Amino acid sequence: MSHSLVNEIKSLLELRDPGQPEFHQAVIEVVEAVAPVLDRNPEMRKARIMERMIEPERVITFRVPWVDDRGNIEVNRGYRIEMNSSIGPYKGGLRFHPSVNLGILKFLAFEQVFKNSLTTLPMGGGKGGSDFNPKGKSDNEVMRFCQSFMSELHRHIGPDTDVPAGDIGVGGREIGYLFGMYKKLRNEFTGVLTGKGLDWGGSLIRPEATGYGAVYFAQEMLSTKGETLNGKRCLVSASGNVAQYTVEKLLQCGATPITLSDSDGYIYDEQGITHEKLSYVMELKNVRRGRIKEYADKYRSAVYIPLDASYKEFNPLWNHKADCAFPCATQNEINARDAINLVNNGVHVISEGANMPSTPDAVKIFIERKLLFGPGKAANAGGVATSGLEMSQNSLRMGWTREEVDNKLKFIMKSIHQSCVDAAREYGQPGNYVTGANIAGFLKVARAMMAMGVV
Question: Does the model's pTM come out above 0.85?
């Protein structure tokens, strides 16, 4: 039955969702992993749970007109995919990037359903965003865009319906503008967005959570082999929020991060990125909004490698001697050749800070070689878990200390790791975190859907 289910779902996707390769990739990974669960639970197969899961409950698209600083009218497209609300209100980020389209957001929303399920918190899955590019725009232009975007989105979200957060291109500045417009339009102060500023309903540790969580997950995986991160050399891609706090937590664990990147290229620092160098990167990226190339201009220990057309086949960032890799950039950034390079260079731990950063061929190599491989839906769930904690604090009208939130985050990542280990073992694939994460995430949502009937 397993093989026929995979083929059925593939045919359904090709028929109903053509031209959405990332969505197809995410769905097939889950279907292949959970097919044995459906074999063991024929009532779920009969109820067509998988077919219902891959169809979003709601897809919203809308026009976003705004005026730039020169007085020109620009028009972008806005989206919100409300994928599954079986275990709680829709929850997931907003992405502002030129690459945003329906297929990418459906893949992200689908992944979010299982990730949120794994956190142990009552959150459904959703995702949204726009093809707007905040890079190079003034604060006023970003504000005008965000206000126009929220003037439509506000009709579809709410603290008990759908709670968006940030993602690529949507940081504290954007969340502030979006929240301000929501508050004005709805005339209410509610926890409708997460990633808010500390002075107006945000949570301590939320900016750090995705990066910290990816490192905590790596620690848990290493502990199964009696190892720690202390002394390990680590490759980290990207240089935004997730990458910055991955580096920060790695340093606190005694590891040595040696790379960071942006869309133009990457830096390799043989001596390691220190706390002082990380502070420079945070100022460069978060305040000056500069390029990572400037790091190599400032620190002689680093070299900068531009990622031009000559690196179409592979990414040289993944071709350095190291112990651990933390891909924190974007989907499919590690292909099969990159995976072989990682293995050949001694990397034996991969913890995904980004969503689906490894292609199916790369994942296959990691699993075949029995590497400690933490897939994004488990390893980077710390971000949305802490968003859930922010929602809890908003509902209670109170705030927790930094230590309280960090301890809860650590506990959640430990629980996610244990759920993955247990599910993989129960279904005959011990040590396979991909299978474990997919099955553990799926079962909770599937059971809720079964309980609620055909809705």
Answer: yes
